[in-house]
Write a structure and sequence with these properties.
Blueprint: H1 2-53, H2 56-64, H3 67-81, E1 85-90, E2 95-98, H4 113-121, E3 125-131, H5 133-139, H6 141-147, E4 149-150, E5 166-167, E6 170-181, E7 184-194, H7 200-210, E8 214-215, E9 218-219, E10 221-227, E11 230-234, H8 251-259, E12 264-270, E13 273-283, E14 289-298, H9 299-334
Antiparallel strand pairs: 1-2, 1-7, 3-6, 4-5, 6-7, 8-9, 10-11, 10-14, 12-13, 13-14
Helix pairs in contact: 1-3, 1-7, 1-9, 5-6
């Protein structure tokens, strides 16, 4: 009985530790994979810009200021590279042309920070960048409206805070490459993807990590992109089934990831369910922490696995103890 009891207690402890530990390790690996997907998207944008900027016809059009030709080329580039915005600036950071309704705006200042950095370094720049509402309006007023999110004051954040108001800035994956004629830099080509309300990237991360697996009618995995501590793109849902845009992360995670710059992983309550989660910081092109990437897996699947395994283990151990006790009673009776 003593050996059985000790074995049962030890087995229960080890099983719990193993199941949850395995889930935490898996989510940590998922966060690495998600980060690589984001990085791959950024590199694909830069590659598309590089290919376009090296064409002799493109360089001649920039030199000649042929805006009609350049706007057409930008449209093709945006279509093939799936860009939300793109443009060309001169060597002194004056806009030559861009996509959208404000396409031909020669002479205006280039407000996109990624182009300024590329011109300063005279080298390609890529990564995350925060774009103000003013910059988004210059690119395309529709992007500014898409970026605007109402901070949910009807739902308490995971930290219990209620703030309200609107988030008007946008987080984008962007790149800019200098345009050279020989050894002379004549301008820069830039482009990017706005992440606010974008479902493609977070759903791709979730589906590749979970391979579309559902559990009890719910996706087992979730992914989120944050601007600071606010969800701007997510497949975490609210009880009404809508995506949880405009909700914020817990104070503990915010402190660890945004303030201290380290990863955070573990069991966490995410709006309506318990998840095994991992959060990592997102840095912009200037090296500032401006957001987070989150991946999580539904804890209920692992607790159910744990419960079933524990049930079988307890039954086997209890059966062994009962048999041993029965044999002892028979032996005593035979005496």
């Amino acid at each position: 009985l003593l050996v059985g009891a000790v074995s049962l207690l030890t087995g229960v402890h080890l099983l719990k530790k193993h199941v949850i530990g395995e889930a935490v390790n898996r989510v940590g690996l998922d966060l690495n994979a998600g980060s690589e997907m984001v990085r791959a998207r950024v590199l694909s944008i830069r590659m598309a810009l590089n290919i376009t900027s090296l064409g002799s016809g493109f360089i001649n059009a920039v030199n000649d200021g042929s805006t009609d030709d350049l706007v057409y080329r930008l449209g093709r580039l945006a279509h093939h590279a799936k860009l939300d915005f793109a443009g060309i600036v001169t060597a002194d950071n004056r806009v030559l042309c861009r996509l959208g309704p404000n396409a031909r705006v020669q002479g205006s200042n280039g407000g996109n920070p990624v182009t300024r950095l590329a011109l300063e370094r005279q080298a390609p720049v890529e990564g995350s960048v925060v774009l103000s509402r003013e910059v988004l309006i210059q690119e395309d007023p529709e992007l500014a409206e898409r970026a605007r999110l109402t901070v949910r004051d009807d739902i308490a954040s995971e930290s219990g805070a209620k703030t309200g108001g609107d988030q008007t800035s946008g987080l984008a994956l962007a790149a800019a490459v200098p345009i050279f004629e020989g050894s002379r830099m004549i301008g820069a080509l830039y482009g990017g993807q706005l992440l606010n309300r974008d479902e493609t990237l977070v759903d791709t991360v979730r589906n590749r990590l979970s391979q579309g697996e559902n559990y009890k009618g719910r996706p087992i995995a979730t992914a989120t992109l944050f601007l600071n501590d606010l969800r701007i793109a997510t497949n975490v849902t609210l009880p009404d089934g809508n995506r949880a845009l405009g909700t914020s992360v817990s104070a503990e995670v915010k402190t660890a990831v945004l303030d201290q710059g380290r990863r955070w992983s573990g069991r966490a309550w995410v709006l309506s369910d318990w998840y095994i989660t991992a959060y990592g910081p997102l840095e912009d092109i200037f090296g500032r922490r401006v957001g987070m990437l989150y991946v999580g897996t539904l804890e209920e699947k692992y607790t159910d696995i744990q419960t079933k395994a524990l049930t079988v283990f307890i039954l086997i151990t209890a059966t062994g103890m009962i048999v041993a006790l029965g044999e002892w009673v028979l032996n005593e009776a035979c005496r």
